[in-house]
Specification:
670 residues, alpha/beta, eight-stranded mixed beta sheet, 19 helices, 35 strands
Amino acid sequence: MSTALRLLILPIAPVLLAACSTLPASTPAGSTATLALLETTDLHANVLSYDYYKLQDEPSIGLERTAALIAQARAEFPNNLLLDNGDTIQGTALADYQALVKPLACDQTLAIYKAMNLLKVDGGGIGNHEFNYGLAFLSQVTGNQFDVDSVDAAKPRCAGPQFPQVLANVYSVKSGKPLFAPYHIIDKQITAVGADGKTMTSTVKVGIISFAPPTIMSWDKRWLEGRVYTQGVRETAEKFIPEMRAKGAELVVAISHGGLDNSPYSPTMENGNYYLSQVPGVDAMLIGHSHQLFPNATSTVPQFNLPGVDKARGLVNGVPTVMANLWGKHLGVIGLRLRHDGKQWVIDKAQTTVEARGIQNADKSYVQADPAIAKLVATEHAATIAYVQTPVGSTDFRMSTYFADVGDISAIEVVNQAQTGYLAAYVKANLPQYANLPVLSMSSPFKSGSAGVSDFTDVKAGNVALNNAADLYLYPNALYGVKMTGAELKAWLEHSAQRFNTIDPNQTAPQELINTAHPSYNFDTITSKDVSYEIDVTQPPGQRIKRLAYQGKAVDMQQQFLIATNNYRASGGGNFPGLDGSKTVLASPDNNRDLLIAYVTQEKQLTRAKNGAARSWRFARAATKGPVVFHTAPNVLALAQAAGIDNVTLLKADDGAGKGFALYQLDLSK
């Protein structure tokens, strides 16, 4: 070594030693801390406590109110991470406005992300509805440059949220690499307490990894086919978690947009988190997608009553797990109790707590909204309101779903008419081989109170504006046409009829009509003067559809029909028999809501006789010894009567459950 080089090196050694002496001391064994994981999920662009469909404030929803819960939790748990589960950017007229009506410029940030930035979200996952507007839009608004066909790789990186977003199980066909970063390791500085009782500062490395339902490949096939592919949650976790651990992750938090299902594992299963919880190295799970509340000791939802699921303590096969409902109604809070073993932080599961906190107080009032969020998105909010007030037609009757479960089709028939008309016109122009097949349509009541007493479609008589069309058709689905036999049509209706519990005619105690485990958006019905059928709720599921007829004749099980529906249903959404994508004859580029708007615009004046009276189904008559009951909003019985439903009576103006619903009785003998 030369003298000159030796002279250069020698002065450096004391400097290095000095630097080493300033490094923080390692955390001593026996130190303890609590780290809270705060979860939002299925926000669906509900930034504000506002219903754009009804053009009124709605205090039971909105991230601006969840903000109060976040502030409270942060005060209680100074060591915390705020994480979002996905289904964040779609679901309101505000979201549609920013995606479809006046799309964002590259340097602009989505309103929902602006609010999340203000709340200092630490990380986020990706849900299935993130893909609804296509890959180019998702690439732009998340600030990611996807290496996939349909996305211009030459465009600059656009503004996205100010927090890392991860997704491990969706890959680019082009590159074979994950669409997003599969995981991210957060170096979280925390305050801890040593074994000697003294407070100290430490760091815990928290790895976050996210999963979307693999079923996006069916639900958003038009955007994703040939561009991306998915892998199952279990094998993806088994691949990446050891890698995360090798890179220093002391804790691994799975942000998985799905629920729980213990049916045999499949890489394509929609709700694979039961199996994800069994993957070694998963320390906590933030789940969603199902729009449910977990933990919830009183829950009757099947997925929370599986073996190994502790619905009171919030454990899935021993893993602390939370699901914070939807629309900002709740905040998930997992209080991880940590203990340092001298090498790293580990979780004391026995002392860890799990809860979901609601924005509604015990006295039924709601927590106060954070005024800074409304101020932040005021421009977008005002523009959305102006947009949705644009009139497209009028109606002489009120279209609602308060009594859709018992036969009111006032909010469903116009959707079916629009879908039928579109499919019939398309077949005439482009598919002459199907010209002789009957064209029918299936639609469902998207809003039937699952999210609260205000969660019903309700379009008053008078002008029909764009917000009303969004109320009648909630999702940005695309119209699909499927070819089905009479037997397959009957099986479709049988699956829909799982909306109802099996009624025992000899039982004297009240029996609940509605099977809440089968959501209303899976209660597909036909509304056509050419079709009639009965639903016999005294029979078990699969044996309920009776007297199915077309144009007055019993449907031949071999007869073929074309049926208008949406991409979600046609591609397997809801697990309807026979609907797996193979029956699709038309995958339209047009959204169901847009063609509904076009139909109303063309009709100009909707009338009860023409657009709200063709009820195809009835309940099969049955004399019951006790009452058959259901719950809907109070003070709306006149709407059932106006729709010709004469076998419903009001039992209680308040059903006593504390959620504002009334109790009604259905007389099956009429």
